[in-house]
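One example copied in:
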Amino acid sequence: MENAALLSPTDINIIRRYVHTKYAPLPGDRRAEIVADAIRRTLKQRLPNVPLEMKNKITDELISRCLVGEQRDVNPEDVLDLCAQLEVDEAERNERLVTPILDWARERAPGRWSPEQLTSRLERRKLYTIALAPELTGNMERNSEKLWFRNLLPQAKKRLRGLINPKIGWVMFVTVIISAIGSTFLLNVAVVPESQAIIKPPVLMTVPKAPPDIGMPEQLRYAEFDADALKTYLKSRDALLAEEPYFGAIVQSARKFDVHPLLLFAITGQEQAFVPKSSKDAKKIANNPFNVFHSWEDYNTDIQNSADIASRLLVKLANSRPEGHEPFNWFNNTYAEDPLWSDGVKKIFNKLSSLPPSSK
C-alpha cells in the first residue's frame, strides 16, 4: 500500500496556523475547538468510505492511538489494522467493509490489491491481534474506553501540548479527548442512518495551507459584529461615538473600505478615548476622532470624511505590508509617532472583539 501518511503532526501545525490566522480575534479555547474539529474532519474524509458509524469509530481510535498517544503520523496500515477489528455481519461484510476499503486501497496504490489479498490481509491482522492482545478485539468503543484511558491519559496532556500549542495545550487536549471517545458536539455533520448510507469513491481533502502573511490580515477585514454590545460598552465609557451620526458613519466607512469596524473604533479609543461627552470640545473632537492630518484641531471636518480618510490609509498601509511584519506595528510606522500606539490599538481591538454578546 502507498505509505504516504493520511495525517501527520506537520499537517496539524498547518491546520493550526490557518485557524489561528483566520480566527485570530476569537478566544484561545474557541480556536482550539476549531482546530480539533478541522483535524477530525480532515482525517475522517481521508478514510475508506465505510458506513458512517464505522468511520466515526475509526476516526476516534486513530486520534487516540496515533495523534494523542504516540504523537506520530496516521498511516494507511493503521486504518487496515482498525478495520480488521470491526465487527461486521458476515452476510454484509463485502458490501459494508471489504468493497469500500478495496476502492480506497486501489486509489492509493493502483494495481496493488485484489479482493482476495485485502480479505487475507484483514483476516491475518485480526488473528494477529487476537494472539497478541485479545482484549483489543471486539467492541472498539469499549476497547477505547478501557485501554486508552488506562494507559494513555497520564502522558497525553504533555504530548499534546507540544503537538498543538503550548499556550492552549490543555484546552486542546480536552477537546480531542472528547472527540476521541465518540462525542460529535464539535461537528456540524448530519448523521446519516445506516440504511441510507451511500457508498461512493472517497474524496481526499487537501489540508488547508496558511495564506501568506502579507497585506491586510483576514481578522482585520470587514466582518459583522455585535453593534449593541459595542454601543453598551461605549456608553459605559460615556462615549459620544456611541451616538449617531458618529457610530453609523464609522461602520459605513469600515464596510466601504473592507476594514473591520472594531479596528476603527479601537483607533478612536487610542487617539481620543472614544470621545467622552464630558470633554468640553467633545463635538469637535468627534468630527475627527482618528486625528487624521495631525489632529482634530488642525483638521476639523465631519465624522464621515475623517472615517473615510482613516480607512483609506489603513488599506493603503496594509497593501504594502511585507511578509511577516506584525500589522499593528506596521500601521504604527506611518500612523503615529508614538511607538506604543500599536500596543494600545491592538489591546483595545482585542478587548472590543471579546465583549460579551448583547442580550437583545
In short: The longest helix spans residues 28-45.
